Amino acid sequence: MEGADIDVQEREVVGLVGESGSGKTTLGKVLALLHRPTLGEVSYRGETLEMPRRNARSEVRGQVQMIFQDPYSSLNPKQRAIHAVAEVFQVWQGVSRSAARDSAMALLREVGISEEQARLFPPSLSGGQRQRVSVARALAVEPRILIADEPTSSIDQSAQAQLLVLLGRLQEERGLGGLLITHALRLGRRFAARMYVVRRGAL
Predict the structure, then answer these.
(1) Are 4 and 203 in contact (CB under 8 A)?
(2) pTM for this entry
(3) What is the 3-state composition of the chain as percent helix, strand, coil, each rounded to the nearest 5?
(4) pLDDT tens digits for range 66-102
(5) Can you tell me the distance from the alpha carbon of 31 to that of 34, in angstroms, rounded to the nearest whole number?
(6) In whole angstroms, how large is the CA radius of gyration of the chain?
(7) DSSP string over 148-199
């Protein structure tokens, strides 16, 4: 992709809009250091980050989290929703299993998941509920920037607006920077302060 110069600040939402297959998801993964860029660099707070630098990569992966478009493959189908989030607290925060479970439940409530739903396995949850669990998993790391890759593409229409409103509220309350990746220009206009448009392989 040519001209892929993206700047995402904390406390603002930026849109990345383009047709399916235009490279938006790949670019998002590059920004989250999940893919290595073929050219150019990724920097965070003035520091250039490269894949081989494991310590820096781990730190930025804690600061930059990505929510993927498919809630059906993002979660382990054999792991209850509350355990999926509690696991993140244990790994990233180093807390006990009991404390992790309490923190996970509090965060799941914040994103609209009840205690009853939290005890369910992902196949028993709706697409919208699974995506909310994915949001909770990302927030458990306490990131400063959240990348949402087509977060509503795999959920029913009634849940789409609710999820985007939730993401907007969480972004504002937590002071997060956000990158909303979408093919729908109307969503970018509604939820992003400014937008980048991918067209014919260029930004």
Answers:
(1) yes
(2) 0.87
(3) 45, 15, 40
(4) 999 888 888 999 999 999 999 999 998 889 999 999 9
(5) 8
(6) 17
(7) EESTTTTS-HHHHHHHHHHHHHHHHHHT-EEEEEES-HHHHHHH-SEEEE-B
Cross-strand partners of 16? 181, 196
- Using a 10 angstrom Cβ sphere, with 0-12 exposed, 13-18 middle and 19 or more buried, the burial of residue 116 is exposed
Return the bridge partners of 179, or none.
14, 147
Query: What is d(CA 175, CA 22) in angstroms, rounded to the nearest whole number?
Result: 30
CATH superfamily, domain 13-75+127-197, is: P-loop containing nucleotide triphosphate hydrolases (3.40.50.300)
User: Burial letters for 92-108: b for 16+ Cβ neighbours within 10 Å, e otherwise?
Assistant: eeeeeeeebbebbbebb
The half-sphere exposure of 133 on its side-chain side, counting CA atoms within 13 A, is 33
Domain ranges of the chain: 13-75+127-197
Nearest to 167 by CA among 67, 31, 25: 67
Tokens of 100: 């992790």
